[in-house]
Give the backbone structure.
Amino acid sequence: MRVSSVLGNSQLLDGGAMFGNAPRPLWERWAKPDAVGRIGLACRCMLLEWGGTKLLCETGIGAYMEPALAERYGLVESDHRLLANLQALGVKPEEIDYVILSHLHFDHAGGLLPAYADIIQGRDDLVFPRAKIVVGREAWNRAQKPHPRDRASFIPGLSEKIEKSGRLIVVEGDSLPDFPREQLFFRFSHGHTPGHMHTVVRGAKDTMIFAGDLIPGKAWVHLPITMGYDRFAEQVIDEKQELYDVAVPEHWNIFYTHDWDVAASQVTKDSKDRYVPTQEQRTLVHYTL
């Protein structure tokens, strides 16, 4: 069971929105803003190679946006970086067997679509032609009927495209039937978005959890730090604590999807009894669990 971190397209978003009620003099110590207050965010995906099976957690934001929308959301690159970086690892799109989506916000699911330059040339398929698309029930339902507050976070027509592919798997429980639950299972949180699904993989020596937007990067390890995009900040804090109650004593690795510099770390407590990242890993290449 091997894990690799694979960068997709990156974006620039308002630092104040990303750090919720934390004041700028505090958060700019962790993320340097540009002239208009935006910070750089990765869209990092987790590739799991398990025997002959390849599973991809998330697809990042992709490059599907037309230019005006790409400018609004700070999309940095115009080509599909996830596909290029998978290719650098020797993995072709048709070799991906499963794509597991924690939720369907555009910065997590947009990489399912071709780049805009290909779309205007008539390409209309999903870029992983064989992959089963795995989504939790509550996250799937939310995408069908978004709240006005997060409607803009979903890609129009994507759910229909996934469903028509015939490859959709909607998770009703906390595991996938094709895999042993003791080695691959899901945890759920709801403070960021309903039914946010976190993939946990457990190998012979290590456990890795894809934290998604519950803990998007190492700065958000600190319990009080939440995002302005979260539905319920206090619930996010409680859900982080529930995760730490398990992950800290068992030394789980936390995989960060949006951290600009760090792919994963463990979490511990410092001398002031605060949760902090430790054992930071900037990248993972065929990391054996």
